[in-house]
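Morning run. Coffee first, then this:
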Amino acid sequence: MLNEFKDFIARGNVMDMAVGIIIGAAFTAIVTSLVGDLIEPIIGLVMGGVDFSNYFITLDGGEYATLAAAADAGAATFNYGNFITALINFLIIAFVVFMLVKAVNKVKEAAEGEPEAEEEAPAGPTQEELLAQIRDLLAKQA
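And here it is:
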């Protein structure tokens, strides 16, 4: 059983997946910073100083100035601003992954080079030629 586990871990797919998960976790931190520190302030500026992190609804009906104040008071909140931030994160990550996959595919295609032209098989006789052969054979038998 231990040998089977070693074989499983030693496969290239498992190692590739592990590397992908580690890089993905590091990449998530970068994208979170990109969204929180660069994109949200620009969107907030365009939308008149909007800060998505303070978009929330208190479920108990209380009035709180910020999400932190509501959390300190122990109020249950519906944090749709955090959802907007997560959605922006997802869209950015999805776009970057799309661009990476596109670039990797382009590199793979370039590395493989153009496939060698397959030799075309000689064309068979045309329909007219086949009919002429049949006619000739029938004429010989008659």
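Residues 12-46 form the longest helix (35 residues). Good start to the day.
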